[in-house]
Amino acid sequence: MAPRNAARYLSALLIFVMLASCGSGRVKDGPPGRGSRPIALPGDAVPRPELRSRYGNGPDYEVFGKHYTVMASSSGYKERGVASWYGKKFHGNLTANREPYDMYAMSAAHKTLPLPTYVRVRNLRNNRSVIVRVNDRGPFVNNRIIDLSYVAALKLDMVRDGTSFVEIEAISFDEPSGDRPTRQVSIRQPDSPTPAAESAAGIYVQVGAFGDRSNAERRLMLLSSIGSAFIVEDAAATNRALYRVRLGPIDGIVQYDVVVKKLADLGITDPYLVTQ
What we know:
Blueprint: H1 3-18, E1 60-63, E2 66-69, E3 78-86, E4 107-109, E5 117-123, E6 129-136, E7 144-149, H2 150-155, E8 164-171, E9 203-210, H3 213-222, E10 229-234, E11 242-247, H4 253-265, E12 272-275
Parallel strand pairs: 3-7, 4-6
Antiparallel strand pairs: 1-2, 3-8, 4-7, 5-6, 5-8, 9-11, 9-12, 10-11
């Protein structure tokens, strides 16, 4: 085996072994046990330019028979989906970039973002927002887009439920010049937390946006077997109307997983979470 191929093989094998931590669902996990040190919630991770890690950055790897390609850059990355968290079972284990996992640190795992990357994670249920440093790979579970450290999940008030609908947005930096990083680009200030009981926004799955209403109606008919679907007409952003087809409201993660599976069976593989 050529040295380069051997190095890539060993890197992929290392990722596979270490990342059983990130959402495989086969190992019982949880918060710190009784008698553990008191939890003093830390501040958010402080974004700063960092060199790309030598470990965990692929450029590609395979876990549980599925192939993943690491992004060349985190610039412009923004996604909505379901977050999970991992805790005491993996505390002290090596992460994908060979740093010890600390469930009390503001960190996270993601399948394809470069390591490390700083991201803002907003809980769509209560509008709480945190900044974490992505230094691990996972979660390798369907319909999960990020695995948060225990303390990050605690700050987002999602430890009890185990999962939550979130929005992830990468915090990008100017490209490095020479051997010194350049200044950080401006970072949007976090939204003010809103108590969950006062959050009026419902969660919906958007399954298409069309310039022709007849196309939207055809999509609507296709979704009739899944649940309550409707068309939202939006003429504010463009010179002509845009017809968005949505399903919902989504009551929880279990219903979301069922809806995504049914959509995939219909050949719709790009649903998008929206609030309204």
